[in-house]
Each structure stands twice: as C-alpha cells, then as structure tokens.
TrEMBL record:
This is FXL18 protein. One of its GO terms (biological process) is SCF-dependent proteasomal ubiquitin-dependent protein catabolic process. Residues 14-61 form the F-box domain. It comes from the Eukaryota. SUPFAM superfamilies: F-box domain (SSF81383), RNI-like (SSF52047). It comes from Anthoscopus minutus. Gene3D superfamilies: 1.20.1280.50, Ribonuclease Inhibitor. One of its GO terms (cellular component) is SCF ubiquitin ligase complex. The lineage of its organism: Eukaryota, Metazoa, Chordata, Craniata, Vertebrata.
C-alpha cells in the first residue's frame, strides 16, 4: 500500500526517477551492491542497463559484507563484468566454497585483490595468480597445508610484481612473501594457535622447504599484529630477522602489535638501532617491552608522523612531551594516537606515581595544542583523574580537538570532580560487584526523558559540554579502567570481574544521556558504568543518534540484575540503522519481550550476547530469526545447558541456512570447558569485529588497507 501511495504521489507531482541526470543517478546507484546492479537493476530498463555498467560502478567491486552473495552470483558477476573490474574485495566471504575463486580468473585487469578470510588452496592460488599479470596488491590467508612449492613459475612472476601484500597466517610459514620481490607494503596477521585440535603443542619453526629469505629492500610499511600465544612470537621473529640484517632505506612505518609480554632480543635491538640511525618514520607502534626502560624514543627520528601507538607502555607524560611531541614541533600531521593502557602518559613521571593519582593537565594541554588535527584518540584502560582546578578537566581540554572522529575514554575520566565530591555514592554502588547472592535493594525513580534531566542541570557537566563540542564524532567508547570481558581469546571464561574505579561510581544515566548530542554517531561502546539505574539515557540515544550502526553494552549498573532492560527495549525500537549489537551482562534474560523489541532493528545483521547465568527462550530466538531477515550471525554464550544450546543452534541452522548462505550460529554455555575450541571455528571477521570485546579506536593506522 505504501509503494502504491508513493507512486501515485510521484505521478501527481510529475517526478520521475529516470528524468534525473546521469550524474545524480550514478551517485544513487553507487549505494547499491554491485551484485544487485549487474544481476537485477540493469535488467529493468535500457537507461539503467547502460548506467549500471558505467566504469565508476564496475571499477571497484566490494563483496566483503554482501552476505547475500553466493557462488552462482559471483560466477555470473565475473562473466558479465569481469574484464571491467580493477579492484575486487572478497574479504571475509567465508561462506563461499573454494571453487568460487576459480571465477576470479576472468578479471584479467585486476590490480587489487583481497581474499582474506576466503578458502584458497595453494594450487587454486597458483592457477588464479598465473592469469592476473597486472596485479599489484594482494591479501590472502595461509592455512595449514599451504605449500609454496606448488606455485607455478607464472604465479611467482605475478607475485614478483606485487607491491602490497596482506597475509594472515594460521600456520607457521613465510607464505608467499619470499616470492614478492618488489614489496613496498607488508601487513602480517599472526593467528597461529599454540595447540592443535588434538591437544599437541605446536612449534614456531617453519615448514621444510620454507627457508627462502623475504625481500624487504623496497619496503616502506611493515605491520604485524599478533594474537596471543608464543608460537606467533616465534614466527614473527623469523620475519624480523631479515630486517635486522639490513633496514630498508625507505621504511617510514614500522608497527608491531603484540599482546602481553614480547621480549626484546639481540636481533630486534639491532633492528631498532639501525632504524634510529638510518630512517625517519611517519608511523610507529612497538611492543611495550621494547619501549619500557629504554631510551629508544630519544634516538628515533620522525618525518611527518600520522600515527603513534604506545598502548600498554609505561611511558610517562614527561617522556611523551620531550621525546615524541618534541615541545609541540611538527606534530600537526598526527591524526591518530593510541595511548590505551598507558597509565602514566598524562603524568610528568612514573617512578613514584600511583595509577590512581591525578593527571597533570599541562601535559594533556601540550598534547592537545601540539596535535590539534587529531581524528582518532584512545585514552582507555587507565585511570585519568582530573584535579579540581577550574578549566583543567580532561573533558574541557579534549573539547578543543574539533576534528575528532573517534574517541575512547575510561569511565573515571569523565567524572565531574566537583559534582562527585559533593554527591555521596548511591545505594546501588554499595552492592559488591561480584556474582554472589542477589541482594534486593530499593531503586530511586529517575527521569526517563532528556527534558527532566535537563532540569537537573546536567548540561553544566564537563562531559555534557565535551559531547556538545564534538558534534561530528562517529565512534565513542567509554570503558571502565578495570573492565575485562568474560570471554577472552584463548582462555576459559573469566568468572569474576574487578570492581570499578572509585571515581567512576557516579557515572550513570545522565552521562549516557549526554551522548545523545552526537547526531552523527555510528558506533558506541559502554562498559562498566556502575551508576546506571534505569538506562534512561539509552532511549535518548536511540531517538537522537539515527546513524547508529554498532552498539556494544557491557556490565552496566548492578551486576546481579539487568536494571536497564526496559530502557534498552525502548531504545531498540528506534534503531533502524543498527547492524551490530553486542551485549555482555550477567543474568541477562533473552526472552520474548527482548527479541520482540530487537525485531524493530530491521537492518540488524549480527547479534552477540555474553551472559554468565543468563537465560534464553528458544521459541523467541526462532521467531526473531524468522522476522529479521538480514541477521546472518547469532552468537550467544549464556548459562543454559549444553543440550539446550545445541538444539537451538541446530534448529536455527536447519531453518535458515539455505536462505542465508553466510549464516553463522554459535550458541554455547559460557563456562563450558570446551569454549575455546568452539571459538576457534568462528570466522575471523566476526570474531575480531564483534564477538571478542576490545577497544578499537586507533587500533590500527587509518586507511591501512582498503
């Protein structure tokens, strides 16, 4: 009926879509997935048949999140426009069979190809690359069984011309790196597990026949990201060994992201010494052990730096200003800065300082003045407590960064010092933050709308002012400094959480309501906000932040009860653009009312719920999956029995897999001993982007890959 009414209105107004200029129509068509353009839209009329094949629409084909694409559609797409495609992104298309890759050979003019997350064997890779003589950029996975000796001479010739390579390793190997003799950009993702499925310890030694030496002489960018585990550290050292012998003269970005302890060796020390002597960097990230206690930063030279990450380092604010910012000189180029877990970075020195002591506002002010063009800033996982000095609050200083697009802050940093000093802790905060016996307490009645909260003068708070000054912010993370997810990567589920910072005790509904000022907000993460009493601020966000696509909520309010459930359901009814939802909360009840509210999120694609002692209603889940046709990922780690979880998982797969080729369902008891085995089978795209909790602001340099 709505469609008929709209058509009638168009006729009465004399408006016809086909009367628009070609430029306007091409702009509109650019928002339509390429598979729909070529296989559907172009068959509607002659004009669209011509426009849908315009070079501006066929030059770059993005399939990486086209969850409806299947093997037959890819085959037809390559047959119709294969010769017109110059850039093809199939990253994360885990559901496509490996034979789908054979059709890429039709794209004779390919310059950039991304197959990360796709199933590609050595022989298929060899056959495909042998036909792609113009290829210059490649992204692939290296899985167990990969054999570089199976690559043909034609394939190696193509690889010798590749200048950009992204390689995700699931097994100890050099992959195709030794064949890429013209490398300028090398991105390595190490996802090798320490144990096999059978429980055997794995070795970091390369496979027999993999002793070829990588060619780094033309390298400009080196990036390595390691998943937890000692095998990943052993393998990355083999890649670095060649760099330590001869540092590329044109190297301008050197980045290694390693969790936990990654000790410095003689070879890595020689590499860093060589870098200090011979290169000028624009981007830097090093393991914390390589920076802590060393004078490295004093000797490294920088050109026009655009990215720094000192995540989890003990770097003091004094050293940050003196050795990196250099008194504010030449830092206007810096657009992304990651100081996550850098607990002393806003203090003059760290020797006698406690992590909870007040920050030195002059250091932050120097940082803000020097790096005035920052677009991405991460200050999470630390206690950044402001003093009572007027005008020197962290939020007030950050409000000067008008170009910020993404920001991550600890909960305790947004506390209004004067207000928190006058305001005694509310009753719910006296409840121990544990998973012990439930305590029945009275909850005060708080306003549910923004107008009533305005009457309480929350607009005068420093955080409210900060949100008002960052109107173009797209990503915001407010995470408790002591928060840790119940589901880490390669370990059993955490059973207890640390209590929140004392300064964070007053952060609750009014601060959440302040976020609703961010009209262009696309991604929001809130974790360990102890003073959430009703969740009323969530409703304001749902109403005002209409561009919100990703929402992650964890441990809000009391731990023994989901006090914000009613507000969350009200919020979801307004989130028409929401695509990803992650909820982590003990005792969460995923019942009929919740899923009925969630069904209003018509664009939802991925759902992840992590809840110790949480419950679910199988019928409600099935009804939700039937109503929300776009959902292709459903991960629930709850307190239900293994039998209940398996039965529901099988029912979902059996009912919806045929219609949704990309469907990925994991429903499993959170505290089950086999959880880590289940996690390892989750596609890396979902695992890295939503299932595992982490701070993602300034995690990597902007535009690291396409």
């Amino acid at each position: 009926q709505e469609v008929v009414n709209e058509e009638s209105e168009e006729e009465s107004n004399g408006v016809n879509l086909m009367e628009f200029s070609d430029e306007i129509l091409l702009h509109i068509l650019s928002y339509v997935p390429c598979t729909d353009l070529v296989l559907n839209v172009r068959r509607t009329c002659r004009k669209l048949a011509t426009l849908c094949l315009d070079k501006s629409l066929t030059h770059t084909v993005l399939l990486q999140k086209d969850y409806k694409v299947n093997k037959d559609k890819v085959k037809q797409l390559m047959r119709d426009i294969g010769k017109e495609i110059y850039q093809l992104n199939m990253a994360g298309c885990y559901w496509l069979p490996s034979s789908t890759i054979d059709h890429v050979t039709r794209c004779k003019n390919l310059v950039k190809l991304n197959l990360s997350g796709c199933h590609v064997t050595s022989l298929r890779l060899s056959k495909m690359l042998s036909t792609l003589q113009h290829l210059r950029s490649l992204a692939i996975d290296v899985n167990p069984g990969f054999d570089a000796s199976q690559l043909s001479s034609e394939c190696k010739a193509t690889l010798s011309r590749v200048s950009e390579l992204k390689q995700t390793l699931y097994t100890p190997s050099y992959g195709v790196v030794p064949c890429c003799t013209s490398l300028e950009k090398l991105l390595l993702y190490f996802e090798i597990l320490d144990r096999s499925r059978e429980g055997f310890m794995l070795s970091g030694q390369l496979m027999v026949g993999e002793s070829n030496v990588p060619h780094y002489q033309n390298l400009r960018i080196f990036y390595a990201r390691l998943a937890p585990g000692y095998v990943n550290q052993e393998v990355v050292r083999l890649y670095l060994a060649v760099l330590s012998d001869r540092t590329p003269e044109n190297l301008h970005a050197f980045l290694i992201s390693a969790p936990g302890s990654f000790a410095e060796t003689g070879a890595t020390k020689n590499l860093l010494d060589s870098m200090a002597r011979n290169v000028r960097l624009d981007a830097l990230q090093l393991p914390k052990a390589w920076i802590n206690g060393s004078g490295l930063l004093q000797h490294l030279k920088f050109n026009n730096p655009f990215y720094f990450s000192f995540s989890r380092c003990t770097l003091s604010g004094g050293h940050l200003i003196q050795r990196v910012i250099n008194g504010g000189k030449d830092l206007k180029s810096l657009t992304s800065l990651n100081l996550s877990g850098c607990v002393h970075c806003l203090a003059p020195e760290s020797l006698f300082r406690k992590a909870e002591d007040d920050i030195d506002s002059s250091i932050l002010e120097s940082l803000v003045v020097s790096c005035c063009n920052l677009r991405h800033l991460n200050l999470s996982a630390a206690h950044h407590h402001s003093s009572e000095s007027i005008g020197n609050h962290l939020c007030q200083l950050l409000s000067r960064l008008k170009h910020l697009l993404s920001l991550a802050l600890p909960v305790c940093s947004i506390t209004d010092v004067a207000a928190s000093a006058e305001k005694p802790p509310t009753t719910p905060n006296l409840v121990p933050q544990t998973f012990g016996r439930k305590v029945r307490i009275g909850i005060q009645t708080y306003p549910r709308n923004l107008g009533d909260q305005a009457n309480q003068k929350i607009e005068s708070s420093v955080f409210w002012a900060l949100m008002g000054s960052l109107r173009f912010l797209e990503t915001l993370e407010i995470i408790g400094s002591s928060f840790s997810s119940a589901m880490p990567r390669n370990e059993p589920a955490i059973r207890n959480s640390l209590p929140p910072c004392v300064r964070a005790q007053s952060v609750g509904d009014s601060e959440v309501a302040a976020i609703s000022q961010l009209t262009y907000l696309q991604s929001l993460t809130l974790a360990q906000l102890p003073n959430i009493l009703t969740g009323s601020g969530l409703v304001n966000i749902g109403l005002q932040c209409q561009h919100l696509r990703t929402l992650s909520l964890a441990n809000l309010g009391m731990m023994g009860k989901v006090v914000y459930m009613s507000a969350l359901m009200d919020m979801l009814k307004h989130c028409k653009c929401l695509r990803d939802l992650r909820l982590e909360q003990p005792y969460f009840c995923a019942g009929a009312q919740f899923f009925q509210a969630l069904s209003h999120c018509s664009s939802l694609q991925r759902l992840c719920i992590v809840s110790r002692s949480g419950t679910l209603q199988s019928d409600a889940v099935m009804s939700f999956m039937a109503n929300c046709l776009e959902v292709i990922m459903c991960h629930m780690f709850m307190g239900e029995s293994l039998t209940v979880c398996k039965n529901l998982q099988q029912s979902i797969v059996r009912s919806f897999q045929a219609e949704r080729p990309a469907l990925n369902v994991v429903i499993f008891p959170l505290l089950h001993e086999d959880l880590t085995e289940v996690i390892r089978d989750v596609p890396m795209r979902h695992l890295d982007e939503i299932t595992l909790f982490k701070s993602r602001v300034a995690e990597e340099p902007p535009n690291l890959w396409w």
